[in-house]
Amino acid sequence: MTEVRCKVRFLARNSGSxxxxxxxxxxxxxxxSGFRLQSRVRQADGSAATSLNKRVQDAFAMWSEAPxxxxxxxxxxxxxxxxxxxxxxxxxIWEFVTGPQYPDGIAINPLEADMLDETLNTTHxxxxxxxxxxxxxxxxxxxxxxxxxxxxxxxxTWYSYQSNRRYRRVPADRVIHFFEKSxxxxxxxxxxAAAMVLGVKMLDGYREAETMSRRLRAALxxxxxxxxxxxxxxxxxxxxxxxxxxxxxxxxxxxxxxGRLKQLPRGVTFKEFSPGGxxxxxxDYESQVKKDISMGxxxxxMSHGMEVSGVSYSSGRxxxxxxxxxxxSMQGFFIRGLMRxxxxxxxxxxxxxxxxxxxxxxxxxxxxxxxxxxARGWDWVDPTKxxxxxxxxxxxxxxxxxxxxxxxxxxxxxxxxxxxxxxxAAAALGLxxxxxxxxxxxxxxEQPDDNPDT
Length: 454
Fold this sequence. Notes:
3-stranded antiparallel beta sheet; 12 strands
């Protein structure tokens, strides 16, 4: 697994295809606003507990300003880093550290996958539990603890006697180990981009060869042939103990410059060297390899490889919809496996360590049972048709305003509040905002009757 991860990391640094994939994952899963918390606690009569919900959201937003142990990352930046780490390494590791020096007494320590030694496969003597690739599990495969290295394998101190192969055991309730479990009993994640390593290497190698061929064809190269036979004397036929090459036997070389003509020596002819003809199927080959790479990543070639030639509007709409479905599933994957578990850890510490907690300890179960994380949305593909479809669905009670707003990553309550503020600001200036388009209705009313006599 380490070898595969190293190959993917190499592509992440040197391949445009891999960098594009990581960029698409970060932009479409996290976006510019990240995962936004919405507390949805309700009172006994069914109405929303507005005050409590606002206190919880404000407290979490304040902690999200610097949730890491280094204090240098915002929650949006930390989420983006997690998505990039998952796309590159296949797993995300967050360790929770508690202490009075951190806001709300808790902070996140993001760790690289290299800190969890894959070569550690043994038994933990005190507990008799099996350790699989650095993860200590019980008899049912449930993680009990994680054995992290005290020094990163890439650090210079790794080879010192004091720090080599030293581990620290961290209980599993203080760690979020996030990865896609594609088979039972799996303890470590694998990079999702592993399937496209070969395709990217083939494409990069072909591009390099094609570039070199074009550079060679752009330069005048060839060989000099000597057509005049050399005169050989009897002395040259004798055995010569001196194996050194004589100056007269040195090959003839000439530097060629653009726009400059030179005369060759007598008896010497020039034979042009051609590295090969022009490759007319280069575009087709690259397009096919891009398709293979995109299929391995699960996204379309149109977005990953920026291939829009031959794509119609209807086909593009279908492709965009399928890509968004993929990103929506990944958003839910990250919210369930990362954000919700992180929120539970934070709110439990917040009630205990915060100077002025946003809730009472008795309200904790209600808050943990009624909250969501809102991910980013997207604008309409076809605004006219999409808006019309939403209006019809709202009129026939087939959807709600909350769902329509959520499709674009907008909170319904914030949307209604902004609409109210717009109306109040316009009324203060003596204006009335009107968004109804009566053009069609007026034109229908003013249209003359084709047969006024009937």
